[in-house]
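Human: You know discrete backbone vocabularies at least as well as I do. Show me how you would write down a chain together with its backbone fold. No explanation is needed for now; the record alone will do.

Assistant:
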Amino acid sequence: MARAITFRRHWTPRYVVDRSALWWRQRRRPDEPWLTASMVAFLDQWLRPTDEVLEWGARRSTRWFADRVARVQSVEHDPTWAAEVAVATERTGNVHLAAVPAEDVSRYVAAWSDPVDLALIDGIHRDRCALRALDLVRPGGLVVVDNAERYLPNTSRGPESIGDATLSSDWTEFVRRVAGWRRVWTSDGVTDTAAWFVPPAPH
């Protein structure tokens, strides 16, 4: 029987400090993606102008990526968010946005099929999108999962960490497929963002 997931108590003194630091950072840097500060800094260094990005969940990250890479393919289930992102990115010329209803799971997951250098899983149906990303990211690229502490085994102090709880079948398959891959796991004490490096193609 799967063990029930119980989240840690939020309002510890450490969490209050972490939450306050996150609030101030978001106020000071309103254009940054809603990822951990460490992951944003890492991606800012890692991305190249020739890269192509796929993201599930169109938000502030869409414009941020568009300013740094050659092309952004994004899918969003919320029509209000999709409309706002479309307006915010219409002048960039390199954003391709698909608005797909939440209930159309298959079309949401498979909205884009071109190979990319980075895939960000930050929307709905994350388990299926994460598996899809493994087949689309080029060797040497990155698969990034936001709020990873909610879905994958971890030792994070974040209040929504599942710890070593039993995973869904799709997340179990994801963990199996990325076993042995290089990984960067970051946390700000409130949420976590993790990235896996797709191994180079065999010679």
About this structure: Residues 13-28 form the longest helix (16 residues).
